[in-house]
Amino acid sequence: MEPKTNQELMSMREKHVPQGPFNVSPYFVDKAKGAVIYDVEGRELIDFGGGIRVMNVGHSHPKVMAAIKNQAKKYTHTCFHTVMYEPYVKLAEKLCALTPGAFPKMGMFANSGAEGVKNAVKIVRHYTKRPAIISFDYGFLGRTLLAPIAGIRFLARLRLLCSKFSK
Fold this sequence. Notes:
Layout: H1 6-16, E1 29-33, E2 36-39, E3 44-46, H2 50-53, H3 62-74, H4 86-98, H5 113-128, H6 146-165
Antiparallel strand pairs: 1-2, 2-3
């Protein structure tokens, strides 16, 4: 028999999924429409999270569903690093044109805040030719283990570099 209640699914989750992915609610989604989520027991819940603020149009918006269907007919995901695709380049061009400032701009897309922060650090270090960055204690660098470690490592390098010049 397949599990049907939130508690049955939670028991499965506790058995098969590590605690690393943190959950803020004990509910399991069955379906969603607009800003409403329906759990597996039929309860209606207002979706205040929206996929951590990335679902501005809500769930199952007709225009989004049509775009997904049209794209899935062509290809689903190639990873831009492996095989490039035109919509990536066109979106970067559009966002660069909308960004204020009379200077050349480039854009890239990341799948998470941690990846965005890591790439921003790499880009800044390459552009400035400087080996370190300044980071703040207790600053949020993303949800991966390497994001905070990278921040600490760069901060330690900066402190080491500064100590060499302060003698």
